[in-house]
Structure formats: C-alpha cells, structure tokens
Description:
The complex is a heterodimer.
Chain A: H1 4-11, H2 18-23, E1 27-32, E2 44-48, E3 51-57, E4 63-67, E5 81-82, E6 87-88, E7 95-96, E8 102-104, E9 122-123, E10 125-128, E11 131-135, H3 149-152, E12 158-165, H4 169-176, H5 182-185, H6 201-207, E13 212-217, E14 221-229, E15 235-243, E16 247-250, E17 258-267, E18 270-278, H7 286-293, H8 321-326, H9 336-346, H10 363-382, H11 391-394, E19 399-403, H12 409-412
Antiparallel strand pairs in A: 1-11, 2-3, 3-4, 4-9, 5-6, 6-7, 7-8, 10-11, 12-18, 13-14, 14-15, 15-16, 15-19, 16-17, 17-18
Chain B: H1 4-8, H2 11-14, E1 28-32, H3 35-45, E2 52-56, E3 74-76, E4 81-82, H4 84-89, E5 93-99, H5 106-117, E6 120-126, H6 133-143, E7 149-152, H7 157-165
Parallel strand pairs in B: 1-2, 1-5, 5-6, 6-7
Antiparallel strand pairs in B: 2-3, 3-4
Amino acid sequence: MLKKEQNDLLTQTGPGTPAGQLFRSYWLPALLASELADNDCPPVRVKLLSERLLAFRDSQGRLGLIDEFCAHRGVSLWFGRNEQNGLRCPYHGWKYDHTGQCVEVPSEPVESGFCKKVKLKSYPLVERGGVLWTYMGPPDKQPPLPEWEFALVPAEQSFMSKRIQESNWLQALEGGIDSSHVSFLHRGDLDSDPLFRGAKANQYNLRDSRPVFEVVESAGGLYIGARRDAENGNYYWRITQWVMPAFTMIPPRGNHPVHGHFWVPIDDENCWTWSFDYHPTRPLSQDELRAMREGKGIHVKYLPGTFRPFANKDNDYLIDRAAQKSGRTFSGVEGIAMQDASLQESMGPIVDRMKENLVSTDNGIIMARHRLLRAVKALMDKDMPPPGIDLAHQHVRSAAVVLPPDRPFMEAAKEALSVRAGVAHASV
Amino acid sequence: MLSESARATSAAEARFRIDDANSRPRAIKVIALDRPSEAVVKRLAQLPWASATFLTAVANVPRAGERFSVQGWLGDLAGHTKDLIGEIDSADLVVMVATGGENVQVASIIGEACSLKHVMTTALVLGATSISDAVLSQTLAQLRPWALMLVIASAEEYIADMLAALRA
Lengths: 428, 168
C-alpha cells in the first residue's frame, strides 16, 4: 500500500514535479538511432516526461531534440522541411537549427536580427549503442554519458527494441523487479521461447514455484535475489539488478543473451518500454536476431509502421482462452512482453496503490518505492544527485549462479554482478 | 467498437473500481533479535500502527545445553513476558529485526515456531554496511534457514515503510 500523496509523487513526472526532476537528472533513451538514420531525414515526434518534442538529424548529421511547435503560430514542426542544416516550418518559413535557435524569419528584414530573439527549448541528443539519449535537466548538472554495458559492446553483440506501454511507468517498472511472477505468468514460455529454452536453470524455475527472496540495497539501486533449491544442498540464485530510476536487468539463462529494460515515462499514463538483449563476449547469432525481430523473448511484434504492440488493448491482447486452459500459456496471452504488459495495463493508467495488499515477497517493490521516495526527497530538499548517475552504478550485470548454502549472494557473486570486459555473464 | 480491454482500462473506468475494503487487517509481529535492534523496534513502536505488535527476544538467548521453555520466552517492550507459541499462533507475518554482526541465534527458535504454525517470516538486517562481508555472512547464516524473505536495508526508516506497505 502506498498513500495517495506518495503514489502521486512517484507517478507524476511532468515538468516541475518532484519525480519529474528526478528523471531529469539522468540520460534517458529517447529514440532508436534507426529512427533518424540519415541526414535530413523526416523529423520524429517524441513525447517524454509529458513534454512534446521533435527530433531531427540535420544536413551535417547533427542531432536536435526541440520543442515540437513553431514559436510563430504553434504549428507542429513535424510537418517541417528538414533542409540545409535546419528545420523549416512550412506555414511561414521560419527555420530552426538543431539547438532550437531560430535562424530565419523570412517576413522580417535580415538586418533586424529578429530571429536571434527566438529560440525553442531544446535538449541534447547523442547516439550511443544504437540509442539516441537525451538529458532533460539543467545544463549545469548534465552527467557524463551513460555507460551501460549493452550500449558499449560492439554493435553486432547487441539488439534494442522499444514498445509503447499504455500505463504509468511505475507499474511497468514494478513488474520488472517482481521476480515472483515468473514461475506463474511466464511458465509456458521458459521451455518454448527460443531466447529462453534449453537452459538448465529453467528446470530449477519450473520445479520450485515458491522461491525464497533476498533484497539487498546496492549503491545504485537494488539486488533482488531469488533462491531455489539446486543439487547437493546448493542454492540456485537469480539476481536481478535495478538501477535508479528505471533500469532493470533480468538474470540470464544458459548462453542466451542477457536482457533488460528501461521504463521511461511518455506522460503519466503511458511509458516507453525499452528492451535490450546483448552478449558480452560474442556477436548475436542470426537465429537470435531473427527471434528478437519477430518479437520473441522480451520483444514484441508491432502494428506495422508503429511501436505499438500487435497484441494490444484494442484487440484484447489476442487472448486465447484455449491456450490458457491447456496451460500452453498461463494467462492466455502470447509472448513474455505482452503477458506482462497486458496485466500491467489492466490495472488502469495509474493504479491506485491504496487498494493493493502487498505481501512479504513484494519487498523488492516496497524497497524500490522507498528508495525512489528517498531520492526524490534528497533531490528536492538538499539538491543531492540521485543514485544511478554515477557511472560506477551503471557498470552492473545480473547473474544466475549456483552457490553453497552459507554464502551471501552479494559476496559470492560480487564479480558476477559487475561488468568484466571480455568475460561472459555468469549464467546457468 | 471499443474492445473490452480498451474500454475497461481507461482512466474514466478506473473511477468505478469498488471502494470497499478488500482485506482484513493482518497481525504482524515485529521481533527484535539483538540489543541494537531492540532500540530500533522501540522507536518503531512509537509510531501509530493498526495491527503490529512489537516484541523482543533479546533477553532469552539460551546458553549451550540449557533447557528453556517457550512459555514466557518473548517479551514486550514494557518488559512483560509473552508466550512464543501464543504470539506466533496469532500472527499472519513475523518480522525479525537483526543487526549485522550480532548473535541472532534466537532466529532459529522463532523460525521453528513459525514453521510449525505455518506463519510467513521476514528478516530485516540493519547495519550491514558497517561490517565486513565475512561477519555479515555469519548473521545471514543464522537467519537464512528461517526467513522466507530477507532484506538487507541501509536505513532504519525502511522498516516503517515496509510495515506501512504491508498495512501493519
């Protein structure tokens, strides 16, 4: 249960809100680099943290992320002409460069310098690891560029997708750190999905649907360890990483790529679910890439020309009651990503946490909220930078390991929980 | 025509979620396992709670080979003795509060009683950042067999937040 004012505090991320300021402390994934593939390509509408923006790549390849609307009459610059190092409004020809600076107002004499007085709000946009990242906070507090491992490995070792989720970001994030649902909701997929099947670990998962949990604070967020019995009195541990505010990394299975998410608010009732898969030491195979593009694993199939999942609320997620009854899928919804999203969206755009009844195994969620609230308070009261900005907090991995029963996982798996160049992730 | 899911998940429809209570209060017993934790539990007990009871097992660490009785084995914060089995019997959840590096052997007695009565257990460890991994391991080894959920928290305030989240 969360009080209404706490729920409001964490779920509202528009300009001027406390959690909005928290999000504006970080570099956030804004677009796939492929969305702005060429110089002078069509601009792309971007809505982030309840701000409507427009992204474009100018004639020199410079990236711009600016206020969507022309300062003159409020026309959407999505209709703009991307030409000769700027975006020209088609209505009266006002032109803006990649920083949002107006560089031409055709109706005014050039000598008047009027255009210099017009500048649209803009944010930096930089490419790293196939993603265009933005920072929407005060320029003097801009942190160093992100160093998540998936974004630093060679391009052939990494795959990224994104999808619209029609719910507030927090209920999506909370699904990402709720390890206890896997043995139920996703049980039909562990042995069939090409990006999960074949791992020895799946048998531990399926044999034991009541894992024991340990939640440990990390410098950047949380380790959430789920412990199941393995052979010879040992424990099989799955350790999920959460790094503030919205990065989660799921424990790997076998030699499959390791994966995770960012949950980024579009507005208070929608978010982007970013889904990455990468392998630290080898290129992804053609089979793996094909499976990811076809929406397997944590990815989805799309409605053509959009980032909206093909199975969505408008078609009742293509729920198949026969598959539910037979157990082929536990909920009747196909695919791991939409199994999660369908249930999280079913809660409504912003779930009322006053009505929930958390139990002891929800301590990962409780602790995440606690840390978010603490970070928001420290930022608002003391201007203290929140966890997750420090690059050391980003050099993390999830892990799946078998350990003797008397070893704390964060000690025994310390190395496995950090990025080690040239060393594969710890997996079973 | 709108699909069932599209209609039902709108903000407008969310207003019609039934507003009655959907659960009854849970009895949560919070038990300090060591002296520093007892001070924490005493501070927690000052806050307003609907269904939490605060207890201590600090005075009752049995010495090796010593016979002991569960009758009057626990204490409340005013110094009155409490029957372990009786307290566990009336609990929906037992939260054991421990301090990293302290001797928390008593967890086994409480844990065994909880196991007998099929009561869920959670252990919270404070003070872990100020001790070595090896010392923390010893504390965890004493707790782990008896805690179905184990949390290592950096701040005492977390316990209050957790209890509030659990509607204590």
